[in-house]
Amino acid sequence: MKTNKLTKIALLTPLIFFTSCTLFNLPATGEKSTLGEVTPYTPEIKNLPAPKEKIVVGVYKFRDQTGQYKASETGASWSTAIPQGTTPILLKALEDSRWFTPIERENIGNLLNERQIIRSTRKEYAGNDANEAALLPPLLFAGIILEGGVISYDTNVMTGGIGARYFGLGAGAQYRQDRITVYLRAVSTSSGEILKTVYTSKTILSTSINGNFFRFVDTERLLESDIGITQNEPVHLAVTEAIEKAVHSLIVEGVRDNLWANKLANPTDFDKIVANYRTEEKVNDQRIVGNKFPQSNRGKWAAFGNLEAFTIKGDYVDAKMNIGGKVGLKYFLSEYINAEINVSNVTIENKDIIRRNVFVSEVNLEYLMIPKVKLSPFVYAGAGTFFLPDKPRYKAQVGGGLEYLLNQNLALRLSSQYDFGFTDDWDGFVNGSQKDQGVRIGIGVNYYFGSKKANN
Which residues are the signal sequence here (predicted)? Predict the structure, then answer.
């Protein structure tokens, strides 16, 4: 009866998910055409203060300069990694900004041919006034030419994932981060001088979440169920956002450096925008690829507190896990290595047999693997003492986990630790040659203070 219930549940689960597609935002029917999505920078460039007079600009070619093809696991792919229509994207961004009057230059040959057809047609049917009728208004000429393009597409800048499986039931998540880079420069048509060059980048995120169930429900019957979803950020939108950011930067830096001084309707309109841009530049100067920092952003000292679940691996059965606490202090010998001292309280308990509250002190050396990144793994090892009622018991421990730096001073930590006893009497019972051991799982915070370490 139990097996039948389990079978029904496992078979119904995928059905429930697929009949409730909105849970995963899955498309159940075809969608009609819609207006294109906007990026976070679309309203920013649209809401810039309007100039007194627009700047006439020409864009001959703003294209993919990477020459890179899409990665393929099945063989060669002749599809490009970057959309080839980046010139129209730039022209749209220039138009949205209301700062520029873009003129047709990418297909200037088509425009000139059409104007020649107009002149020929008018002249043919104009009679005596043929020469006057054939005249057309002159073409606008650009005071500035915009050049540049998408100059790089870096794949797998960061990859990672997490997952777990227990008794045939598992779940996992993976991510991959790519990166595009855009350069945009303004060139004076009167002198050929490069007035301003700006550089922007945008990451492209791909994520995958999946779950599965795998179990033998009978000696010859295997039950298996899978479900998952993958989401890829559109490359087109990433390119659009990077180009819009470049146009925004070109305008703001031009105002800051007085390139557009005669175009401003009211110079004070840009004071706050320029101040915010300078703040963004200062933050960006301290950042390199992968959200890393040229210098470790952690202090030389750290105080920490953890909530820890502890269970003993001793001679009695039915060991229980109890919550305790740990506090301590760290001193960084270098940006990678710190020395730590801590005290904690743990409960040794086997159901209906023994229960002891014990104070523990430890000394550890910890290695922070990538201190220039906000999310860093760490490992540590050291020695400690269990202060039992009769006499102290000595031990060694190893552990590790992940630390995420929330801000300059505060970090969140997930950790696990294994305690190796040198004796077999933590629980008051000696049986065999196996020493008593313990397992801890903890969550806590680190508070960093003191002067910042120099870059090693």
Answer: 1-25
Structure tokens at 247: 């146009």
Nearest Cα neighbor of 398 from 354, 355, 366 is 366
Query: Is the torsion defined by CA of 315, 319, 324, 329 positive or negative?
Result: positive
Where do runs of H (alpha helix) occur along 28-179?
Answer: 42-46, 86-97, 108-125, 130-133
Instruction: With cut-offs at 50, 70 and 90, classify the pLDDT of residue 330.
Output: very high
Listed in sequence order, the residues at least 6 apart from 12 whose beta carbon sits closer than 8 Å to its beta carbon are none
The closest of 200, 206, 178 to 82, measured between CA atoms, is 178
Mention every residue, 6+ apart, whose C-beta is less than 8 A from residue 61.
Answer: 87, 106, 147, 149
Q: Is 0.85 topped by the overall pTM?
A: no
Structure tokens at 64: 């993919």
Per-residue pLDDT tens over the stretch 24-39: 566 667 778 888 888 8
Residue 323 carries which side chain, given as an amino acid letter? I
Q: d(Cα 357, Cα 344) in Å, to the nearest integer?
A: 11
Alpha helices in 159-292 (DSSP H): 235-256, 271-285
* Tally of CB atoms within 10 A around 289: 11
Alpha-carbon gap, residue 110 to 422, rounded angstroms? 86
Q: Give the SS3 label for residue 153.
A: strand
Contact at 8 Å (CB) between 202 and 50? Answer: no
The whole-angstrom separation of Cα 306 and Cα 399 is 14
Answer whether 152's CB lies under 8 Å from 63's CB. Answer: no
Q: Is-contact 435 420, C-beta < 8 A? A: yes
| E strand or H helix at 15 | helix 2-19
CA 396 to chain CA centroid, Å, is: 37
3-state helix, strand, coil in the chain (%, to 5): 25, 45, 30
Residues paired with residue 331 on neighbouring β-strands, in sequence order? 301, 339
